Amino acid sequence: MDLIAVTGATGAVGGRIARALSSAGVQQRLVVRDASRAPDLPGAGVRTAGYGDAKALKHAFHGVHTLFFTSAAEDEHRLDQHRSVVEAAAAAGVQRVVYTSFLNAAADCTFTFGRDHFATEEMLSAAKFGTTFLRDSFYSDILPEFVVEGALRGPGGAGRVGAVARADVAEVAVAALLDDAHAGRSYDLTGPQALTFSEIAATISRVQGREVTYVEETLEEAYDARAGFGAPDWMVEGWVSTYTAIAKGELDVVSGDVESVTGHPARSLEDVLAGR
Question: What's the whole-model pTM score?
Fold first, then answer.
Protein backbone atom coordinates (compact mmCIF):
# COMPACT_ATOMS: atom_id res chain seq x y z
CA MET A 1 0.00 0.00 0.00
CA ASP A 2 1.18 3.54 -0.75
CA LEU A 3 2.82 5.38 2.16
CA ILE A 4 0.56 7.59 4.28
CA ALA A 5 1.88 10.53 6.30
CA VAL A 6 0.02 11.65 9.41
CA THR A 7 0.57 15.10 10.86
CA GLY A 8 -0.59 15.94 14.37
CA ALA A 9 -0.01 12.38 15.58
CA THR A 10 0.61 13.63 19.12
CA GLY A 11 -2.86 15.22 19.19
CA ALA A 12 -6.31 13.87 20.00
CA VAL A 13 -7.47 13.30 16.41
CA GLY A 14 -4.14 12.57 14.74
CA GLY A 15 -3.21 10.13 17.48
CA ARG A 16 -6.42 8.17 16.97
CA ILE A 17 -5.78 8.05 13.24
CA ALA A 18 -2.19 6.86 13.67
CA ARG A 19 -3.24 4.08 16.06
CA ALA A 20 -6.05 2.93 13.76
CA LEU A 21 -3.76 2.80 10.73
CA SER A 22 -1.17 0.86 12.71
CA SER A 23 -3.78 -1.64 13.88
CA ALA A 24 -4.78 -2.12 10.24
CA GLY A 25 -1.18 -2.92 9.29
CA VAL A 26 -0.71 0.24 7.24
CA GLN A 27 2.76 1.68 6.70
CA GLN A 28 2.77 5.29 7.78
CA ARG A 29 5.05 8.18 8.59
CA LEU A 30 4.31 10.34 11.61
CA VAL A 31 5.28 13.98 11.02
CA VAL A 32 5.68 15.69 14.38
CA ARG A 33 7.43 18.67 15.91
CA ASP A 34 8.89 16.67 18.81
CA ALA A 35 9.94 13.10 17.99
CA SER A 36 10.09 12.19 21.68
CA ARG A 37 6.31 12.65 21.91
CA ALA A 38 5.45 10.57 18.84
CA PRO A 39 3.54 7.36 19.59
CA ASP A 40 5.58 4.17 19.24
CA LEU A 41 3.53 2.18 16.74
CA PRO A 42 4.26 -0.84 14.54
CA GLY A 43 4.74 0.16 10.92
CA ALA A 44 5.20 3.84 11.75
CA GLY A 45 8.32 5.84 11.00
CA VAL A 46 8.85 9.29 12.46
CA ARG A 47 10.18 12.48 10.92
CA THR A 48 10.45 15.83 12.64
CA ALA A 49 9.10 18.98 10.99
CA GLY A 50 7.25 22.05 12.14
CA TYR A 51 4.71 23.66 9.85
CA GLY A 52 6.95 26.67 9.39
CA ASP A 53 9.98 24.65 8.22
CA ALA A 54 9.57 24.14 4.46
CA LYS A 55 12.79 22.16 4.02
CA ALA A 56 12.00 19.73 6.84
CA LEU A 57 8.44 19.33 5.60
CA LYS A 58 9.57 18.46 2.08
CA HIS A 59 11.95 15.84 3.51
CA ALA A 60 9.19 14.47 5.74
CA PHE A 61 6.78 14.15 2.80
CA HIS A 62 9.27 12.54 0.40
CA GLY A 63 7.84 9.28 -0.94
CA VAL A 64 4.40 9.92 0.57
CA HIS A 65 1.32 9.26 -1.55
CA THR A 66 -1.43 10.40 0.84
CA LEU A 67 -1.20 13.05 3.57
CA PHE A 68 -3.41 13.57 6.57
CA PHE A 69 -3.09 17.31 7.11
CA THR A 70 -4.39 18.44 10.47
CA SER A 71 -4.84 22.18 10.72
CA ALA A 72 -2.34 24.11 12.80
CA ALA A 73 -3.23 25.52 16.19
CA GLU A 74 -4.81 28.98 16.09
CA ASP A 75 -2.04 31.42 15.32
CA GLU A 76 -1.76 34.88 13.83
CA HIS A 77 0.38 33.34 11.07
CA ARG A 78 -1.52 30.07 10.63
CA LEU A 79 -2.16 30.64 6.93
CA ASP A 80 1.58 31.05 6.30
CA GLN A 81 2.16 27.77 8.13
CA HIS A 82 -0.50 26.04 6.06
CA ARG A 83 0.99 27.44 2.87
CA SER A 84 4.34 25.86 3.81
CA VAL A 85 2.65 22.48 4.20
CA VAL A 86 0.82 22.74 0.88
CA GLU A 87 3.92 23.85 -1.03
CA ALA A 88 6.13 21.18 0.57
CA ALA A 89 3.60 18.45 -0.17
CA ALA A 90 3.36 19.54 -3.80
CA ALA A 91 7.14 19.69 -4.15
CA ALA A 92 7.49 16.21 -2.61
CA GLY A 93 4.99 14.68 -5.03
CA VAL A 94 2.14 13.95 -2.62
CA GLN A 95 -0.95 12.90 -4.58
CA ARG A 96 -3.82 13.03 -2.10
CA VAL A 97 -4.53 15.20 0.95
CA VAL A 98 -7.16 14.69 3.66
CA TYR A 99 -7.56 18.01 5.48
CA THR A 100 -9.41 18.87 8.70
CA SER A 101 -11.41 21.93 7.73
CA PHE A 102 -14.41 23.53 9.41
CA LEU A 103 -18.16 23.35 8.88
CA ASN A 104 -19.44 26.09 6.56
CA ALA A 105 -15.96 27.57 6.24
CA ALA A 106 -16.10 30.70 4.10
CA ALA A 107 -14.13 33.86 3.48
CA ASP A 108 -16.66 35.81 5.56
CA CYS A 109 -17.95 33.23 8.05
CA THR A 110 -18.62 34.58 11.54
CA PHE A 111 -16.22 32.18 13.26
CA THR A 112 -13.00 34.00 12.40
CA PHE A 113 -10.77 30.92 12.63
CA GLY A 114 -13.04 29.26 10.07
CA ARG A 115 -11.85 31.78 7.47
CA ASP A 116 -8.36 30.25 7.63
CA HIS A 117 -9.86 26.86 6.80
CA PHE A 118 -11.61 28.25 3.74
CA ALA A 119 -8.36 29.84 2.52
CA THR A 120 -6.51 26.56 3.09
CA GLU A 121 -9.10 24.62 1.11
CA GLU A 122 -8.55 27.09 -1.72
CA MET A 123 -4.77 26.56 -1.55
CA LEU A 124 -5.13 22.78 -1.64
CA SER A 125 -7.56 22.89 -4.57
CA ALA A 126 -5.27 25.22 -6.52
CA ALA A 127 -2.37 22.81 -5.98
CA LYS A 128 -4.34 20.08 -7.82
CA PHE A 129 -4.18 17.42 -5.11
CA GLY A 130 -6.88 14.82 -4.86
CA THR A 131 -8.52 16.38 -1.79
CA THR A 132 -10.89 15.21 0.89
CA PHE A 133 -12.14 18.01 3.12
CA LEU A 134 -13.40 17.00 6.56
CA ARG A 135 -15.57 19.97 7.50
CA ASP A 136 -15.87 19.41 11.23
CA SER A 137 -18.32 21.10 13.52
CA PHE A 138 -16.99 22.08 16.95
CA TYR A 139 -15.70 19.08 18.88
CA SER A 140 -18.17 17.83 21.46
CA ASP A 141 -15.22 16.52 23.51
CA ILE A 142 -14.09 20.03 24.42
CA LEU A 143 -17.47 21.49 25.41
CA PRO A 144 -16.99 20.54 29.11
CA GLU A 145 -13.73 22.55 29.01
CA PHE A 146 -15.79 25.70 28.45
CA VAL A 147 -17.36 25.27 31.89
CA VAL A 148 -15.85 27.61 34.50
CA GLU A 149 -17.13 27.54 38.09
CA GLY A 150 -20.25 25.65 37.08
CA ALA A 151 -21.21 27.90 34.19
CA LEU A 152 -21.02 27.94 30.43
CA ARG A 153 -20.77 31.65 29.62
CA GLY A 154 -21.03 33.24 26.20
CA PRO A 155 -23.12 35.24 23.73
CA GLY A 156 -24.59 32.12 22.10
CA GLY A 157 -28.25 33.02 22.56
CA ALA A 158 -30.63 30.23 21.59
CA GLY A 159 -28.40 29.13 18.71
CA ARG A 160 -27.71 25.44 18.14
CA VAL A 161 -24.56 23.48 17.33
CA GLY A 162 -24.32 19.93 16.01
CA ALA A 163 -20.99 19.24 17.73
CA VAL A 164 -19.06 16.18 16.54
CA ALA A 165 -17.00 13.62 18.44
CA ARG A 166 -13.27 13.55 17.73
CA ALA A 167 -13.50 9.77 17.50
CA ASP A 168 -15.98 10.06 14.62
CA VAL A 169 -13.76 12.55 12.80
CA ALA A 170 -10.82 10.18 13.16
CA GLU A 171 -12.83 7.23 11.81
CA VAL A 172 -13.92 9.21 8.76
CA ALA A 173 -10.35 10.35 8.21
CA VAL A 174 -9.04 6.77 8.29
CA ALA A 175 -11.65 5.67 5.77
CA ALA A 176 -10.69 8.58 3.49
CA LEU A 177 -6.97 7.85 3.80
CA LEU A 178 -7.40 4.20 2.87
CA ASP A 179 -9.65 4.60 -0.17
CA ASP A 180 -8.95 6.80 -3.18
CA ALA A 181 -12.69 6.88 -3.85
CA HIS A 182 -12.94 9.66 -1.25
CA ALA A 183 -10.77 11.99 -3.35
CA GLY A 184 -12.71 15.03 -4.50
CA ARG A 185 -15.24 14.69 -1.68
CA SER A 186 -16.17 17.02 1.18
CA TYR A 187 -17.88 15.75 4.32
CA ASP A 188 -19.82 17.82 6.84
CA LEU A 189 -19.03 16.06 10.11
CA THR A 190 -21.54 16.67 12.90
CA GLY A 191 -23.17 14.91 15.78
CA PRO A 192 -26.69 13.42 15.56
CA GLN A 193 -28.46 16.50 16.91
CA ALA A 194 -27.96 20.24 17.26
CA LEU A 195 -28.13 21.52 20.84
CA THR A 196 -28.44 24.94 22.45
CA PHE A 197 -25.95 25.89 25.14
CA SER A 198 -28.67 25.43 27.73
CA GLU A 199 -29.17 21.87 26.48
CA ILE A 200 -25.42 21.28 26.46
CA ALA A 201 -25.20 22.47 30.07
CA ALA A 202 -28.09 20.20 31.06
CA THR A 203 -26.47 17.21 29.36
CA ILE A 204 -23.15 17.80 31.11
CA SER A 205 -24.99 18.12 34.42
CA ARG A 206 -26.89 14.87 33.91
CA VAL A 207 -24.02 12.72 32.65
CA GLN A 208 -21.22 14.06 34.83
CA GLY A 209 -23.28 14.54 37.97
CA ARG A 210 -22.42 18.19 38.50
CA GLU A 211 -24.53 21.31 38.28
CA VAL A 212 -23.80 23.30 35.12
CA THR A 213 -25.85 26.22 33.83
CA TYR A 214 -25.67 28.39 30.74
CA VAL A 215 -25.19 32.09 31.42
CA GLU A 216 -25.90 34.37 28.47
CA GLU A 217 -23.35 37.19 28.05
CA THR A 218 -23.68 40.40 26.08
CA LEU A 219 -21.03 40.97 23.45
CA GLU A 220 -19.42 43.60 25.67
CA GLU A 221 -19.29 41.20 28.61
CA ALA A 222 -17.87 38.44 26.41
CA TYR A 223 -15.06 40.60 25.04
CA ASP A 224 -14.21 42.05 28.45
CA ALA A 225 -14.10 38.65 30.15
CA ARG A 226 -11.81 37.10 27.54
CA ALA A 227 -9.57 40.14 27.18
CA GLY A 228 -8.79 39.63 30.86
CA PHE A 229 -6.66 36.61 29.93
CA GLY A 230 -4.18 38.90 28.21
CA ALA A 231 -4.69 37.30 24.81
CA PRO A 232 -4.15 39.32 21.62
CA ASP A 233 -7.18 40.86 19.92
CA TRP A 234 -7.29 38.31 17.07
CA MET A 235 -7.51 35.44 19.55
CA VAL A 236 -10.19 37.12 21.67
CA GLU A 237 -12.20 37.70 18.48
CA GLY A 238 -11.89 34.02 17.66
CA TRP A 239 -13.03 32.95 21.12
CA VAL A 240 -16.07 35.23 21.07
CA SER A 241 -17.00 34.27 17.51
CA THR A 242 -17.16 30.65 18.67
CA TYR A 243 -20.44 31.71 20.30
CA THR A 244 -21.68 34.34 17.87
CA ALA A 245 -21.42 31.95 14.92
CA ILE A 246 -23.71 29.59 16.81
CA ALA A 247 -26.06 32.42 17.78
CA LYS A 248 -26.42 33.30 14.09
CA GLY A 249 -27.34 29.72 13.18
CA GLU A 250 -24.22 28.99 11.14
CA LEU A 251 -23.51 25.75 13.05
CA ASP A 252 -27.12 24.57 13.28
CA VAL A 253 -26.32 21.66 10.99
CA VAL A 254 -26.90 17.92 11.36
CA SER A 255 -25.38 15.79 8.63
CA GLY A 256 -25.49 12.07 7.94
CA ASP A 257 -21.91 12.01 6.61
CA VAL A 258 -20.38 10.31 9.66
CA GLU A 259 -22.79 7.40 9.32
CA SER A 260 -22.52 7.21 5.53
CA VAL A 261 -18.73 6.87 5.71
CA THR A 262 -18.27 4.82 8.90
CA GLY A 263 -21.44 2.72 8.83
CA HIS A 264 -22.51 3.69 12.36
CA PRO A 265 -24.49 6.65 13.74
CA ALA A 266 -22.56 9.69 14.89
CA ARG A 267 -21.83 9.78 18.62
CA SER A 268 -23.99 12.13 20.67
CA LEU A 269 -22.69 14.53 23.31
CA GLU A 270 -23.99 12.09 25.92
CA ASP A 271 -22.01 9.28 24.27
CA VAL A 272 -18.83 11.34 24.37
CA LEU A 273 -19.28 12.40 28.00
CA ALA A 274 -19.95 8.78 28.98
CA GLY A 275 -16.81 7.61 27.18
CA ARG A 276 -18.65 5.60 24.53
Answer: 0.95
